[in-house]
Backbone:
């Protein structure tokens, strides 16, 4: 996913071509179509997308376009190290993890050195992911992919070019823009995250380290291709085939976004365990109740705790007369995505009141930090210690079998 000069990105992707089964590039719509032919020698598919902030918005959509068993996510202003290229076949052969975290080396102050201190190093990010139901990302600025276990951190870095290809003024403008989109985040070690990360000339104190000779060749090729594109020395190269433009609505359909419309809060709830008399819980017991959750709105509800909108299943406890006993219940995530019109059985973890008695349990969905759905499933609950259904005798005392009761034939019904 990139807005960088196509010649620059193509030079970077050439390093990955020997080990990649498929390369898919999503180009920011602000890039001139007449330059996209630079991708022809190395890329299997190029698409364009309507750019709208945040920059991470298309990431989930782009991952969904990939057909391989694993997905390596790399941006246009990054370059893989030789160690990463050589490790990829071994890493994707593993069957005991679903993700790998890769470190990033921020180049500065020259393309031959990198920053060795926090927060620029090691800057681990989830970048190599098993393709399938566990792959998800948030559209929030620089939120990246949702971390899943089992995973590994590997010493096979990416190089980040931003601080050597953009001058101080350009990076200062980026800081201001990013701070508007996502303010108030702190860098490791203190300071505003965006300010520290993109202005190392003001904040870096530790000595830099030299880029290994093994990685100098690909970095030189990428930066030379960028220089030719920026200086206008490289002639335009139109693509050999039409490039699809993906509409913003298609991007948004795959994006994990926080907002919901009023009509998206429609839900149907039904207790799966259903019949059998009063529902009983022991005092202070914590257990799952199984609830069928039907999405009657128009937006996809996403699984887990990291995606947006942050929809959970929770509950209130009331006394029989309606008085509130406990307003905030435990939160249970959705175990799978629920599309409009679909339903899923959800384990809803409930903690019972500590005092015995009869209660009303109101199970509802909640959009965290926004609102409750206000369509609760109301369940009558008895909170009491378990008692035997019928009187029993001491197991050590022998008892005679009870004779059956015989009703005279003329009294039978």
Residues:
């Amino acid at each position: 996913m990139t807005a960088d000069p196509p010649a620059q990105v193509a030079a970077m992707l050439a390093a990955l071509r020997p080990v990649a089964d498929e390369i898919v590039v999503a180009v920011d719509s602000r890039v001139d179509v007449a330059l996209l032919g630079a991708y022809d020698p190395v890329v299997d598919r190029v698409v364009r997308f309507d750019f709208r902030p945040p920059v991470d918005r298309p990431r989930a959509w782009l991952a969904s376009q990939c057909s391989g068993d694993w997905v390596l996510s790399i941006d246009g202003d990054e370059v893989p190290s030789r160690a990463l290229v050589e490790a990829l076949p071994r890493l994707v052969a593993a069957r005991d993890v679903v993700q790998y975290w890769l470190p990033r080396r921020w180049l500065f102050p020259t393309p031959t050195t990198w920053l060795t201190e926090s927060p620029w190093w090691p800057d681990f990010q989830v970048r190599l992911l098993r393709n399938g139901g566990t792959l998800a990302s948030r559209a929030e600025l620089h939120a990246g992919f949702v971390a899943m276990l089992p995973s590994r951190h590997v010493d096979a870095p990416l190089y980040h070019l931003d601080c050597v290809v953009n001058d101080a003024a350009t990076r200062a403008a980026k800081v201001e823009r990013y701070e508007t989109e996502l303010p108030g985040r702190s860098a490791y070690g203190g300071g505003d995250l965006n300010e520290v990360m993109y202005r190392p000339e003001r904040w870096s104190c530790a000595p830099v380290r030299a880029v290994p000779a093994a990685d100098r060749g690909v970095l030189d090729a990428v930066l030379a291709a960028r220089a030719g594109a920026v200086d206008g020395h490289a002639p335009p190269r139109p693509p050999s085939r039409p490039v699809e433009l993906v509409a913003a609505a298609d991007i948004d359909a795959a994006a994990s976004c926080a907002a919901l419309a009023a009509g998206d809060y429609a839900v149907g709830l039904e207790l799966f365990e259903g019949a059998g008399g009063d529902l009983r819980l022991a005092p202070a017991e914590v257990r799952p109740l199984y609830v069928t959750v039907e999405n009657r709105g128009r937006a996809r509800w996403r699984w887990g705790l990291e995606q947006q909108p942050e929809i959970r299943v929770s509950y209130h406890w009331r006394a029989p007369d309606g008085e509130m006993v406990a307003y905030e219940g435990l939160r249970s995530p959705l175990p799978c995505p629920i599309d409009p019109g679909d339903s899923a059985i959800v384990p809803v973890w409930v903690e019972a009141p500590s005092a015995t008695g009869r209660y009303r349990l109101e199970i509802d969905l909640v959009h965290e930090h926004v609102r409750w759905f206000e369509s609760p499933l109301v369940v009558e609950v008895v909170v009491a210690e378990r008692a035997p259904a019928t009187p029993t005798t001491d197991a050590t005392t022998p008892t005679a079998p009870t004779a059956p009761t015989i009703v005279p034939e003329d009294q039978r019904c």
